[in-house]
Design brief:
Length: about 500
């Protein structure tokens, strides 16, 4: 073949570092954004946060402004702020200060990048170390406490022999977060050294001791034992206590099947009496371990605040969650335009990065404001009347309204929250698929869930509504939904099937 030269033209999109930064900030949550801003403040000397009470003009001083400063020096210049080289303030510690005047000589502010413990001795140094088993201050005072630590704390207060304490600690390790013993007593016995000569009866006795700990019902091997442990800790004068114990011991499976007629025949009770017994059993906790919460609470900071003013819905950014930044005027003035030294190049780059970062934050806030405004405009019925008035909404609808790509809308609505008079919702909550109606319209899936929840709340508890019956009621309202779709929506709401919702009136 004869070689030939072929010319081709093409286009290629390349994301600039500024665009990459803007996209990355756009998809961050409020808490992550605050951390990102703090890291930028710590690493870039050109950035500074606006303090409360200061006039924020969002100015960006140029490098050539240093020439103007040289013509009219002020007291803020480094020459005027330079301290006297002949004066040196003595460093005072607790050891070399007298008891009478040490409090008056502590400075109001510590040196830069200095912690209090670096200069002054604290009383915390006299506390026992974390390695000390007898000192568990963190565990006893933290907001989140594990179930095992709670039980071990009670174990340390109980008088036991060393062998029994070993058995108890092993049993506590086998208790799951729900409060049940995961291992059998035989399996627990096999985990001990044969030289200890521990018998099965000893393990059983220690387990009975643990089952007397708080919360009531802890250490049970099944639901029946858990409920019985809680019933036996109730006062003896509790009404219907003996009948409740008999029901749980002998007829718990019938109660689980909600066969109340058979249960009344077996226990020879009337309907009113059975209802009171069941009410007593329902006061018990089938998962006693869940009372001890080990996890830390997760806080949500809303990005957008929606409120009604003079009959209009107003959308505004949460200023407390959106700190305003600016370029430090003093450091920016040090940048020389024609200087190519390493220090000046570094400061010039930092100045450029600071401008990009501020611009990316402003772009993020602007985009978030546009999207939130369109959501409120589209879902005005929700803010006025609730979930049942929610309209179908997809990302494409908002993307067309604000003139952006769907991927951008997806990033904006992820992990962003809106504070409304009806509560705090993620922006994703306002997007839902639609179901056709008999009149040719559309109904939001969120509205259908709200209708199902309303129907179940108003149903006859003796004869709860089945999924087919709910589908028929929705069809009567003009909403065409299949039975399987109703079941899916019901499960997403955490509503049990009709067979499990049956109650005695």
């Amino acid at each position: 073949m004869k070689p030939s030269l072929v010319l081709k033209m093409g286009q290629q999109l390349t994301m600039t570092p500024q665009l990459q930064q803007a996209i990355r900030l756009l998809q961050l949550s409020t808490l992550d954004l605050q951390q990102e801003i703090q890291e930028a403040l710590d690493s870039n000397p050109m950035l500074e946060r606006e303090e409360d009470g200061e006039d924020f003009d969002n100015s960006d001083p140029m490098a050539e402004s240093i020439e103007k400063k040289s013509e009219s020096p002020t007291t803020d210049s480094p020459e005027h702020n330079e301290p006297d080289n002949h004066y040196e303030e003595p460093i005072n510690t607790v050891e070399n200060l007298e008891d009478g005047d040490w409090g008056d000589r502590i400075p109001n502010e510590l040196p830069v990048d200095t912690a209090w413990e670096d200069i002054y001795q604290t009383s915390a140094s006299s506390l026992p170390s974390n390695d000390d088993d007898e000192w568990d201050f963190t565990t006893r005072t933290s907001s989140g406490e594990s179930l095992q630590s709670h039980l071990l704390w009670q174990l340390n207060l109980a008088p036991m022999s060393d062998t029994d304490r070993l058995i108890a600690a092993t049993l506590i390790d086998c208790i799951n977060p729900q409060g049940y013993l995961d291992e059998t007593l035989e399996e627990v016995l096999e985990s001990f050294d044969p030289e200890l000569e521990i018998e099965l009866d000893e393990v059983e006795v220690v387990l009975r001791r643990i089952q007397q700990f708080e919360p009531a019902g802890i250490g049970a091997r099944d639901l029946r034992e858990c409920l019985l442990l809680q019933l036996r800790q109730l006062p003896e004068r509790t009404e219907w206590l003996s009948e409740a114990v008999r029901l749980v011991s002998d007829h718990l499976d019938i109660l689980g099947a909600r066969d109340y007629s058979l249960l009344m025949r077996r226990m020879k009770l009337k309907e009113d009496e059975l209802r009171q017994i069941i009410d007593l059993i329902q006061t018990l906790n089938p998962r006693p371990g869940s009372q001890i919460e080990a996890g830390e609470p997760e806080y949500v900071v809303p990005d957008v605040i929606v409120r009604k003013h003079n009959g209009r819905w107003l959308v505004e950014l949460n200023q407390e969650a959106m700190p305003r930044l600016r370029v430090n005027a003093q450091y920016a003035g040090f940048v020389k335009r024609a200087d190519s030294s390493a220090d000046n190049t570094f400061m010039r780059n930092q100045l450029q990065e600071a401008r990009w970062f501020i611009k990316s934050l402003l772009s993020r806030n602007e985009t978030l404001m546009k999207v939130a405004t369109q959501i409120v405009e589209h879902q005005r019925g929700f803010f006025e009347h609730g979930d049942e008035a929610m309209k179908p909404l997809v990302l494409h609808d908002i993307a067309e309204a604000v003139g952006m790509h769907e991927s951008t809308i997806s990033r904006v609505t992820t992990q962003k929250f809106m504070h409304t008079p009806r509560g705090i919702y993620e922006l994703k909550y306002f997007f839902s698929s639609h179901v056709s109606t008999a009149e040719g319209g559309e109904c939001s899936s969120t509205a259908i869930r709200a209708i199902i929840k309303k129907l179940v709340a108003a149903e006859n508890q003796k004869k709860p509504l089945s999924d087919s019956k709910i589908a028929g009621l929705l069809e009567a309202q003009g909403i065409q939904v299949a039975r399987r779709t109703v079941a899916k929506y019901r499960e997403s709401l955490g509503i049990a099937p009709s067979s499990e919702r049956k109650r005695l009136m």
